[in-house]
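Re: the request from the purification team.
They wanted to know what the chain is likely to look like in 3D before they choose a buffer screen. I agreed to run a prediction and write the result into the notebook, where they can find it.
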Amino acid sequence: MIEIDGSSLKEGGQAIRTAFALSAITKKDCHFFNINDKEENPGLMPRHLLGLKTLAQICNAKMEGDKLGSREISFYPDKFIEDQSSFHIKNEMADSITLSLQSLILPIMFFSKPLKIVFEGGATDTFFSPTIDYFTYIFLKTLEKMGVKVEINIIKRGYYAEGGASVEATISPSKLRNLNLINRGNLKIIKVISGASESLREKKIAERQMAGVREVLGKLKLPVEEKIEYYQTLCLGSQICLIAEFENTTIGTDNLGRLGKRAEDVGKEAALELLKESKTNACLDKYLTDQILPFIALAEGKSRVSASEITEYSKAIIQVIEKFLNGKFEIKENVISWIPDLAS
């Protein structure tokens, strides 16, 4: 059994999702303990459990300790269940759909046939997780380079705190290719998607978020394509996503509207963050780096990527991956390399 001490990791949720997804793929039992041990509210949170329980169902795994507040949880994988073409996930809370999908894609891409995941409820855009636009246009765009095919259909948006989203994601069988992204090439275009609940249309929240972006990027005379959207949602909310497409890669940033924060500042913050990422000349932004590491390690051959920042989250994910897979990561300045153990 793989033993993982959560007290040595920066963020328990992402590490647990990665560990259990790799457990399902490798068929190695996993025990994760001291979950969020240093946090004010230690143990499993609601946002952790939805994805984990879904993963267990789809991968025919047993779990122990899968309850709120539990400081340890065990995962016992079995053979994948492939006798269905779709799987429905009902969520009456505002748990992140994108975080659930990140862990589900890992094992499902090894299935022998496509599987459609249908989310009824949950949030497309919520805190501490990628927005659905970042997930679709940056994360999945990078996975596409590796041979992974995932189709997303957003039927209805959902924000924190009521959720109510409706999303379909079809994950197809994939043979992972290695990833070599060191030079990103020239900037082609920056796409900006600014959206908000229909109830906020009169206040022009989406337009004002876009105005904040223009305040930052307008002076630089960069190629920008703008898109304003409004949605019917259960509760008020807004989001913005900046997608910078280069010749060889795509990076980006996102941000959410908050009560008491000016909409212009929401857009301005996202734009300033994108400029910060762009100045590093890296092929992966810091959030994409965290998310792509398990896929790099599962791909055939050696991969090399340049990252804007090697965060504590990235280091935690690296620790988890190296416990399950034969190989190791090497970090030199801002370049991360995965070197498989060919002798194993």
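For the purification team: Residues 263-278 form the longest helix (16 residues).
Please add any questions underneath this entry.
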